[in-house]
Write a structure and sequence with these properties.
The protein is of the alpha+beta class. It has one domain: Lipid/polyisoprenoid-binding, YceI-like (Lipocalin, Beta Barrel). Helices cover 15% and strands 50% of the residues. The chain is built from two helices and 15 strands. The strands form two sheets. It has a twelve-stranded antiparallel beta sheet. The chain has a three-stranded antiparallel beta sheet with strand order 3-14-13, with no helix packed on it. The chain starts with a strand and ends with a helix.
Length: 183
């Protein structure tokens, strides 16, 4: 088994706003700050402590806007995220498991468990030299999550959220290559 520390993977969740008054809201970057990631003969495994998913900043288009929200705004968003959306007291862990890919490119077809619901999830992999990144789109309502809304739904988070993961340790990509070769 190849286990990697939380610094080996940076995982972000990107939300987009929707609704009649969407312009008054903010797209957001959230980050998973407590996670475990490992590879073994069964596949790729990821565990996220849902209580440690934090809002990082607002976004405009594809750009992070770190000064747009105050610390107080970020704290309030985090409380809503953990309490109303992820319900971390009831569902403290998010899990993803997938068989090893045949190469470090293409996709992982696995299962994501979120808010107590386990569903198939495809994750797309992109390899650039020693760098490895992954992306996925998930539909909150498919996991029993009602996307956050305010002002009677005039401002709400879109049902689909984007997941971006970046492997920050070259040893992970090498271990994935080695494990895939023996799978």
């Amino acid at each position: 088994m190849n286990a990697f520390n939380a610094d080996a993977l940076r995982l972000s969740i990107l939300t987009r706003r929707d609704g009649l008054l969407a312009r008054a809201g903010h797209d957001l970057r959230l980050q998973a700050n407590a996670l475990r990631f490992w590879l073994d003969h069964e596949g790729v495994h990821l565990r996220i402590d849902s209580a440690h998913i934090e809002p990082v900043c607002a976004r405009m288009g594809d750009r992070d806007m770190p000064l747009l929200l105050s610390e107080s705004d970020l704290r309030r968003i985090g409380q809503n995220l953990r309490g109303e959306v992820l319900r971390v007291q009831r569902f403290p862990e998010i899990a993803f498991d997938a068989p090893l890919p045949s190469s470090g490119q293409g996709s992982l077809d696995g299962h994501l468990t979120l808010c107590g619901v386990r569903r198939p999830q495809r994750v797309f992999l992109l390899r650039r030299g020693a760098a490895l990144s992954a992306t996925a789109v998930l539909t909150q309502s498919a996991f029993g999550i009602e996307p956050y809304s305010t002002m009677l739904g005039a401002i709400r988070v879109r049902d689909e959220v984007e997941i971006e993961a970046e492997v920050t340790e070259p040893a992970v990509a090498a271990a994935l290559d080695a494990a895939s070769a023996t799978a």
